[in-house]
Amino acid sequence: MELREAILSRRSIRKFLKQAVPEKLIKEILTDSQWAPSWGNTQPWEIMVIAGPPLEEFKQKNKEALFNGIKPKPEIQMPEVFTSQLKQRYVDVGKNVLQSLSIGRKDLDGRLNYYGDMFYLFDAPVMVLFLLDKNVLLEYAMLDVGLCLQTLLLSAHDKGLGAIVLAASVNYPDILRSLFPIDANKTIVIGAVLGWPDREAPVNGFERQRANLDETLTWIKS
Ligand SMILES: Cc1cc2nc3c(=O)[nH]c(=O)nc-3n(C[C@H](O)[C@H](O)[C@H](O)COP(=O)(O)O)c2cc1C
Q1: What is the predicted pLDDT for the residue at 135?
Q2: How far is 208 from 185, CA to CA, in rounded Å?
Q3: Residue 89: CB partners within 8 Å, gap ≥ 6?
Q4: Which of 80, 83, 111, 126 could form a disulfide with 194, with the two C-beta atoms 3.0–4.6 Å apart?
Q5: Total domain count for the chain?
Q6: Looking at residue 140, which CATH number applies to its domain?
Q7: Strands 162-166 and 126-133, how do they pair?
Q8: For residues 108 and 105, what is the distance between their CA atoms, to the nearest angstrom?
Q9: Is residue 126 in contact with ligand 1, taking CB distance under 6 Å?
Q10: Cα of 166 from ligand 1 centre, angstroms
Q11: What are phi and psi of 165, to 5 degrees?
Q12: Residue 214 domain-assigned (yes or no)
């Protein structure tokens, strides 16, 4: 796929086909992601791939924790305060997702079920978890993880796979730590899930917006 086309046509996927992803393909994507730039080529990201029955167990427990009202305790602080403009964008994407699923604003059960699906990682067959050593400077390493993540998303898209970055996958680190061998000196940063996208699903096709360039750009010329 041509690069610009890949950048513009990539989107977050929230419904996957029940079809396994070959390990070889996952390794190719992760090998591509290794080519992301990083501070001093330090490549601080550490990656754990989780699939099969262990992932099923995690999805179930993650969803149960949400439904049991367990307080989220992410190891990287979640954004809680926004400017009104950012808040509006956040609200808009939520509205668009729910609308695409025909879940009305007042349909509390529908919304709860949707959040259950999200914490069930949209039933994707593969999760890629990003960890950072607690000894690296978090802010710069987070820039590096972000670059690696976007490279992963584009490489997956190039191979016909769908993906989504999911804060919902790291809200309950205790569950992740109880199921998987995550060292105490590693911080759980973020997870992304991968799978074959259901191209018929409206939730994978709703229109998304981006700010006009003049809303974000200051250009100094003289
Ligand atoms: C750090 C991060 C965390 C995210 N967490 C979630 C999440 O928990 N649930 C979800 O539905 N989407 C999540 N997303 C996906 C965003 O909603 C999505 O990227 C955004 O709406 C832009 O849409 P696009 O990816 O289709 O271009 C996350 C994205 C990022 C970068």
Answers
A1: 97
A2: 38
A3: 209, 211
A4: 126
A5: 1
A6: 3.40.109.10
A7: unpaired
A8: 8
A9: no
A10: 6
A11: -80, 135
A12: no
Domain that holds residue 140: 3-205
In a domain, 104, yes or no: yes
Confidence of residue 105 (pLDDT cuts 50, 70, 90): confident
The rounded mean pLDDT for the chain is 97
| Both tokens assigned to 218 | 């200051």
C-alpha closest to that of 191 among 61, 59, 52, 23: 59
- The pLDDT > 90 percentage for the chain reads 98
Tell me if 196 sits within 8 A of 160, measured CB to CB: yes
Instruction: Compute, in angstroms, the gap from residue 93 CA to the centroid of ligand 1.
Output: 9
Q: 161: Cβ–Cβ under 8 A, 6 or more apart, which residues? A: 21, 25, 29, 194, 195, 196, 197
What is the layout of strands, in order, in the sheet containing 186-195? 46-51, 126-133, 186-195, 162-166
State the CB neighbour count (10 A cutoff) for residue 100: 17
Task: List pLDDT tens digits, range 189-213.
Answer: 999 999 999 999 999 999 999 999 9
State the distance from the centre of ligand 1 to the C-alpha of 220, rounded, in angstroms.
Answer: 31
Query: Does residue 83 carry a pLDDT above 90?
Result: yes
